[in-house]
Amino acid sequence: MNVQRKLRKLTFDLKNSPTILLPAWYKTLGAHHLSPRMMPRDVSTRWNSTFDMLDFAIQYRPAIDTMTAARDFGLRQYELVPAEWKIASELRDVLKVSKFLLLLYYVPH
Which tens digits make up the pLDDT trace of 30-44? Predict the structure, then answer.
């Protein structure tokens, strides 16, 4: 399973478990002193949503690692190994440049 697919499925599972996973997510965010937010969804029809999802995941990596490492939550299949985090970071950096260039191109001068 690739990095993007793992993060998409993790987001889906968190949002669709309002009684177990979602409260645990917010508790984990508090433990890591992170703002209470949900990961942006990567939607094929929304421009640059992959960048937004990857950027969020990298910022919230400690919480994502905690949630996916806990056996009780059944999220182990979405756990990212260091090589996958590196891929996510590199892809985010490439998409960031693309986002910046497109904004420069489409902003009226």
Answer: 999 999 999 998 887
CA distance 81 to 54: 15
By C-alpha distance, which of 88, 77, 13, 61 is closest to 24? 13
Token pair listed for 81: 């190994």
- Does residue 103 come out as left (phi exceeding 0), alpha (psi in the -120 to 50 range) or beta? alpha
Tokens of 18: 């309002």
- The pTM assigned to this predicted structure is 0.85
Question: CA torsion, points 87, 2, 97, 40, in degrees to nearest 10?
Answer: -120
Non-local CB neighbours of 34 within 8 Å, separated by 6+ positions: 59, 60, 62, 63
Tell the residue number behind the tokens 């478990």, with chain if given: 17
Residue 39 CB neighbours (<10 A) = 23
- Which residue in 84, 66, 88, 87 sits closest to 75, CA to CA? 66
Residue 104 clears pLDDT 60, i.e. is over it:
no
pLDDT in tens, 14-25: 999 999 999 999
